[in-house]
Write a structure and sequence with these properties.
single chain, alpha/beta, seven-stranded parallel β-sheet, globular, binds NADP nicotinamide-adenine-dinucleotide phosphate
């Protein structure tokens, strides 16, 4: 293994694939978890076995997460940075979302991030824990109710965890990407909108570079792109302006 190791959950696509490259380039080893093995096999061909370890970890399967922890212990792999990224989007109106879908989203986007974080903290070596949020933590979008709920919960969980870890050497970072051209927008609920605004989207490479920088500088939160201005405007203008600001930023 190289000097430091980063564990990235859900590194098979999007921003996170670019992050794998970035970390390996910067002399880290990467442990990446997958659900879709074919994508990671392709990615793994580009790196040595020491640079890139990939493990199955479907965050809806209890067994997988404990196997991941056992593997880290057995192999004496010390995780310096944990990036909780894997997520699932089922986008439809709340009334059309089944109980099973709600349960799956809460598990994938929230509960397992907490369980994995706890397990990694118990290993006693981690220095930075990163979570990925979105503008949806602050604004409720139609058809994203459960997704928004998980992002809101993650934001406040981070705040509380940061307080609990104050005085230790462990930093908690929350990242809020803007609109990035990834599988996120392949969702049928978004496809028309995505095609309209694709020219405005950020690239995964650019965002991965920013995330790498924010974690390296131990920022506690990092909002990428226009979200930053949105959050400032939302704070200073009255609540009735909410829709106008949203229109300005999203279209
Ligand atoms: N793209 C954007 O514009 C944007 C904006 C704001 C916030 N974000 C946030 O950024 C994060 C990543 O977004 P992205 O755009 O890079 O997404 P993405 O391309 O859809 O990637 C999602 C990753 O999560 C994995 N995953 C899904 N369900 C899983 C499960 N049950 N167990 C394990 N892994 C699972 C996927 O694996 P498979 O390939 O195997 O399905 C994939 O690697 C999310 O938290 C999202 O909310 C994105």
């Amino acid at each position: 293994m190289k000097n430091k190791t980063v564990l990235i959950t859900g590194a098979t696509s999007g921003i996170w694939e670019s992050l794998v490259y970035k970390y390996i380039q910067e002399w880290y080893s990467v442990v990446a978890t997958w659900r879709n093995i074919n994508k990671l096999i392709e990615l793994s061909k580009k790196f040595t076995k020491k640079e890139f370890i990939y493990l199955k970890c479907d965050l809806t399967l209890d067994h997988d997460i404990w196997s991941l922890i056992e593997f880290l212990k057995d192999q004496h792999i010390i995780i310096d940075i944990l990036i909780n990224n894997a997520w699932l989007g089922i986008f439809k109106s709340f009334m059309k979302t089944s109980k099973k879908e709600i349960n799956t989203m809460l598990h994938t986007n929230l509960l397992w991030h907490l369980f994995l974080t706890k397990a990694i903290l118990e290993l006693n070596q981690v220095r930075n824990i990163c979570f990925v949020s979105s503008l949806a933590w602050k604004v409720g979008f139609a058809d994203l109710s459960v997704y928004s709920a998980t992002k809101f919960a993650i934001e406040w969980f981070c705040d509380a965890l940061r307080e609990e870890l104050r005085g230790s050497n462990i930093k908690v970072t929350i990242i809020r990407p803007w609109i990035v051209d990834t599988n996120f927008f392949d969702n049928t609920a978004f496809i028309d909108y995505a095609n309209q605004i694709r020219h405005k989207m950020q690239t995964s490479n650019l965002v991965a570079g920013s995330i790498y920088g924010a974690i390296k500088k131990w920022y506690s939160e990092y909002t990428i792109g226009k979200d930053r201005y949105f959050l400032i405007l939302q704070k200073i203008l009255p609540k009735c302006m909410h829709r106008i600001i949203l229109k300005l930023f999203i279209n």
